Amino acid sequence: MLPMGRMGFTPEGSVWPIEARGRDSDRPRLTRVIADLYRQRALVWAFANRDFATRYRSSILGWAWSLLQPLATLLVYAAVFSLVFRIQAPPLGADPERTSFAAFLFTGMVTFNLFSGLLMLSMTQLRSNGELLRKVHFPAWTPILGASIVQLVQVALEVIVLIAMFLWLGNIGISWLLAIPILLGTALFGQGVGLMLAVLNARFGDVQYIVQVVLQALYFLTPILYPLALVESTASWLAWIVKANPLTWFVETMHQVMYSLVFPQWWVVPGLVLLGAVVFWAGFTIFNRTSEDIGELL
């Protein structure tokens, strides 16, 4: 027999019914994950609305900062690596006679920022909602996914800027449509890894600082600031490390469909989406099994 449901509260303080789950609901089934997400969709959206309202509340420029920060990074990196280190981007797909290091760089940045943003947000949300989790019973993953929705909006703004950049360059192709499932796979991958690490970070606060260092290393081990062919021609051993990096798979495929305007092999994009879905399912399942006493740790 299942225990009776309990009452929780939304971030605004209103009462919200939370269904109690029996032992069978802890089984790692994909249908169970989808059902949980659907059942708590309103609570997730309530946390998202809260984060929308508070993210840049005290800032004069507001949401403009979500674009100014990556664009400033783009300008610095583009100047240093294209002018100082003389790194050449591959030819544009629409015009092999031209290249654009800024467009090549920003394509990789958008993809990497999607992964890293969701990962870091997932780890910090439990601690930032610690007081609420101690006082009220509700699924601990709901504030994480709520904050992730806000992060997805920020990435969507970056994608709009990326599209505008390619339109200005005249680098337009039907292969752009494949960017949607690639970014979806990237988001699922980052969210899944973030859920896996969220509870670990709640138990051991050093985890988020270790992850920050690892992300910095992964940034330079992913072909964002340089084409993969450059590494293959200069250091074959390093090329193997770069190719083994899962983020390379997502970034390189984005470069193909957005920058080079070529279609990858038929199995690549479905494989990336499947990888992201499997990692998300695993992260969600692990999180549910290890976060029952999370309020006591925060």
User: Shape, please?
Assistant: globular
How many individual helices?
13
Radius of gyration: 21 Å
Structural class: mainly alpha
Name the beta content range: under 5%
- Biggest sheet: strand arrangement: 1-2
What's the pLDDT, averaged over the residues?
86
Uncertain spans, ≥5 residues at pLDDT below 50?
1-7, 17-28
> Strand count, sense and closure of the main sheet?
2 strands, antiparallel
Number of strands: 2
The residue fraction in helices comes out at 55-70%
Euclidean distance between termini CA atoms: 31 Å
| Topology as a string of helices (H) and strands (E) | EEHHHHHHHHHHHHH
Total domains: 1
Protein described:
The protein is an all-alpha fold and 298 residues long. The protein has one domain. Helix content is 68%, strand content 3%. The chain has helices spanning 30-39, 41-54, 65-84, 101-128, 130-135, 142-169, 179-203, 207-220, 228-234, 236-244, 246-259, 268-290, 294-297; strands spanning 6-9, 15-18. It has a two-stranded antiparallel sheet. α4 (101-128) packs across α11. The longest helix has 28 residues, at 101-128. The protein is globular, with a radius of gyration of 21 Å. It starts with 5 loop residues before the first strand and ends with a helix. The model is unreliable at 1-7 and 17-28 (pLDDT under 50).
